[in-house]
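Hi R.,

Here's the chain you asked about this morning:
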Amino acid sequence: MSHVTLVRHGQANSSARDEGGYDRLSPLGHDQARWLGDYLRDTGDVFVRVYSGTLRRHVETATGIAAPCDRETVLDPRLNELEYFTMAALMADQHGIPVPTDRESFVHHLPTLYRLWRDGAIEGAPESFDQFETRVSDALHEIAAGTGRALVVTSGGVIGMAMRVTMALDIPALAHACLAIRNASLHRFQPLATGLALTQFNATPHLDRRDRQHAWTHL
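And here is the predicted structure, written out as tokens:
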């Protein structure tokens, strides 16, 4: 077993209000991915394995990072994000809760969506909360059980859920974790005899320069 480093994708099309429209990197998102790759090479951070979700923004981020690795990137749909826009639209229709249009509204919307989703109160959801939790847990533990250090390109909801399954986060804590996660940030889990331990959260060393602080983005 070896540590697993999760990377949230670079900034996507934050003006979109549907899954397909959101799923591509912005010009800044491409920069964030490239800068992260440069940082990993400069620090000599080498990975034996690289994984990515199958969404366009995941693949574009993994390509931009071009992490040092002798193997081809493994595409795994279990690393794909929950369909937030789809469920937000369903929640608006079924519960009269409007889809947020700014970050402040999103801060209140996300924990409500998670709670209703967990309770089975969003009819027609693409997958249940339990199914999402199970696929993320299965993928995380399967990758952690492999040999050699692994880099995993995914999304904020997957990273938050990985924290939930390893740290027993409740719904408010899960939502707060997801809301904090920056684009192109690093999150590391270390296997221990008692399970996976979170040893790094939301690190963006490749953006910690005065001329790149505009690249600290969440949406």
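One quick note: The helical segments are 19-22, 27-42, 56-65, 84-95, 103-118, 129-144, 156-167, 171-180.

Cheers,
M.
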